C-alpha cells in the first residue's frame, strides 16, 4: 500500500508524476505551480493542448486530494492564464525533483511572508527586535537600547508591534503617560474612520524615564477603559484593508504608520518590538519595514528549530531573500560564559545551512528538535563568513524589568556590564549611518 501524500511531500510528488507522464522536457515547458489556499496544486505549462488530457488524468490519479479538482494542468493559452504568468515572473524559482519551476503560494494568512523583502533603509534608521519565543529579554533589550540612545542625544521612537503580548507601554510609560490610542487602534481606524495628525499625536506617549524617548504602545488608555473590546480590535487589526477594491496588506499598513510618525521630523531612530514566533504580524518587522533585524534567542533547541524554519523560508521561497541577510544579526540572550563557545558553534551551524535542514532526518537531533551539532571538542564547521552574533549576558537583576518603579535598572554602569556588546553595536550602527 502506497504511503499517503502529505503537504510536505505533495510538491515533489506532483513534479514526479508530471515527469513520469510527460514525454517532453518538463523544464523547457516553463512550469508555473500554483498552490491554493487549501494546499491543492495546479500547474501551467507551455505545451500542446493535445498533451493536457493525459497529464491531467495522471496527476489527478497520483495526487488525489492534493490535485486541483478541475484541470490541475493547464496550458499557457488557457483562459485567465496570462495574468498568472505575468504575476509569476517575480515568484521564486525552485528546483524540485531536478526541475526548475516558479511557485505561486496562495495564502489566506501569511501572505506577507511571501513578499520580497524591503532592503532599502529609509531616511531614519529602523531596528526591529524579534524572537522565536517570548521571555528571552527582547523587549527589555529594546528598552535598554532606547535609554542608551536617548542618553547620546538622539530622539527615539519605540513602537510596540507585539499586539497580543504587549510590553513597551507598561515598561517605558507611567500610567498617566499612556496615550489615548496605540498601534492596534491605528490598524483598525486607518481602514474605517481614518488617521489624521490629531489621531497620530494621540498615539504617542512621552516617557519621563529620559528626555528623548517617545512610545507608540500596542494599546492606549482608551482600550484599558474598554477592555472587553480589546480582542475584537486585535482580530481586525491583523487583516488586510480594502481601498477602492484593492487589498492593502498588513505590512503596507505598518509601513504607512511608521512613515506618518517619521514625517513629523521629531525622531532620529525608530525601535520596533515585534511579536514572538512566526505569525503574520512578525513578517512586517522581519521583512517589510526596511529595518535592521535583531533575531533574539537563547541557547536551546526551540531557538534553532524556529530560526531554521525562518531562514530556510527566506532563502528558498523569497526573491531577494539572501540579500536580506545583510540586515540580520543574531542576539544570544541570557548568555552564560560556560555555554558561549557551544552557542557560537550552534549559531554558526544554523547560519551556514545551505537548505532547510529539517528536511533531512539525518541532521536532526535525537529528539527531532536540534540541528546537527556535537557536544564534544570538535568544533562545528564555520561558515565562509562568521555568523553575525551579539550577546546579552544572563543577569538576575534584569529577571523582572520595571524601570518605571526601579530606576536602578537604568544605571549606566549596571547596564553596560550586561548589555555592553549590544550597546556598542548600536553606537557603531548609528555612527555608520551618519
UniProtKB/TrEMBL annotation:
Record flagged with keyword Isomerase: no
Gene Ontology BP, a term: negative regulation of cell division
Record InterPro entries: CobQ/CobB/MinD/ParA_Nub-bd_dom, P-loop_NTPase, ParA/MinD_ATPase
Record-level GO cellular component terms: cytoplasmic side of plasma membrane; cytosol
Keyword set includes Nucleotidyltransferase: no
SUPFAM superfamilies given in the database record: P-loop containing nucleoside triphosphate hydrolases (SSF52540)
Domain of life (superkingdom): Bacteria
Sequence ranges assigned to domain CobQ/CobB/MinD/ParA nucleotide binding in this UniProt record: 128-263
Molecular function, one GO term: ATP hydrolysis activity
Keywords noted in UniProt: ATP-binding, Nucleotide-binding
NCBIfam families in the record: AAA_KGGVGR
Protein name: CobQ/CobB/MinD/ParA nucleotide binding domain-containing protein
Biological source species: Meridianimarinicoccus roseus
Lineage: Bacteria, Pseudomonadati, Pseudomonadota, Alphaproteobacteria, Rhodobacterales
Amino acid at each position: 500500500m502506497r504511503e499517503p501524500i502529505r503537504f510536505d511531500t505533495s510538491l515533489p510528488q506532483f513534479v514526479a508524476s508530471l515527469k513520469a507522464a510527460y514525454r517532453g522536457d518538463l523544464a523547457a515547458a516553463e512550469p508555473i505551480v500554483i498552490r491554493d489556499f487549501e494546499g491543492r496544486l495546479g500547474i501551467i505549462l507551455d505545451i500542446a493542448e493535445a498533451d493536457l488530457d493525459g497529464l491531467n488524468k495522471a496527476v489527478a490519479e497520483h495526487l488525489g486530494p492534493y490535485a486541483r479538482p478541475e484541470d490541475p494542468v493547464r496550458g499557457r493559452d488557457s483562459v485567465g492564464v496570462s495574468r498568472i504568468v505575468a504575476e509569476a515572473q517575480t515568484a521564486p524559482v525552485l528546483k524540485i525533483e531536478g526541475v526548475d519551476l516558479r511557485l505561486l503560494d496562495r495564502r489566506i494568512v501569511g501572505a506577507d511572508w511571501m513578499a520580497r523583502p524591503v532592503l532599502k533603509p529609509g531616511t531614519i534608521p529602523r531596528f526591529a527586535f524579534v524572537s522565536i519565543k517570548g521571555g528571552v529579554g527582547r523587549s527589555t533589550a529594546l528598552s535598554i537600547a532606547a535609554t542608551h540612545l536617548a542618553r547620546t542625544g538622539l530622539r527615539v521612537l519605540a513602537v510596540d508591534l507585539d499586539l497580543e503580548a504587549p510590553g513597551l507601554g507598561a515598561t517605558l510609560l507611567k500610567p498617566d503617560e499612556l496615550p489615548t490610542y496605540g498601534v492596534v487602534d491605528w490598524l483598525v481606524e486607518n481602514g474605517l474612520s481614518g488617521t489624521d495628525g490629531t489621531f497620530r499625536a494621540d498615539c504617542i506617549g512621552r516617557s519621563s524615564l529620559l528626555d528623548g524617548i517617545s512610545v507608540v504602545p500596542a494599546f492606549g488608555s482608551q482600550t484599558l477603559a474598554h477592555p472587553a473590546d480589546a480582542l475584537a480590535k486585535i482580530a481586525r487589526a491583523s487583516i488586510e484593508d480594502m481601498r477602492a477594491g484593492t487589498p492593502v496588506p498588513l505590512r503596507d499598513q505598518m509601513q504607512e504608520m511608521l512613515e506618518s510618525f517619521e514625517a513629523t521630523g521629531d525622531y532620529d531612530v525608530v525601535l520596533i518590538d515585534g511579536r514572538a514566533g512566526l505569525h503574520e504580524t512578525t513578517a512586517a518587522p522581519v521583512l517589510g519595514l526596511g529595518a535592521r533585524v535583531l533575531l533574539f534567542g537563547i541557547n536551546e533547541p526551540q531557538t534553532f528549530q524556529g530560526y531554521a524554519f525562518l531562514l530556510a523560508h527566506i532563502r528558498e521561497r523569497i526573491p531577494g531573500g539572501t540579500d536580506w541577510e545583510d540586515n540580520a544579526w543574531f542576539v544570544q540572550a541570557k548568555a552564560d560564559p560556560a555555554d558561549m563557545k557551544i552557542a557560537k558553534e550552534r549559531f554558526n551551524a544554523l547560519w551556514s545551512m545551505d537548505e532547510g535542514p529539517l528536511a533531512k532526518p539525518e541532521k536532526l537531533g535525537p529528539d527531532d528538535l536540534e540541528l546537527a551539532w556535537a557536544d564534544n571538542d570538535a568544533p562545528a564547521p564555520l561558515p565562509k563568513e562568521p555568523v553575525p552574533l551579539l550577546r546579552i549576558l544572563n543577569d538576575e537583576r534584569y529577571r523582572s524589568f520595571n524601570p518605571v518603579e526601579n530606576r536602578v535598572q537604568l544605571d549606566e554602569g549596571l547596564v553596560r556590564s550586561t548589555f555592553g556588546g549590544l550597546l556598542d553595536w548600536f553606537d557603531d550602527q548609528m555612527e555608520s549611518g551618519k
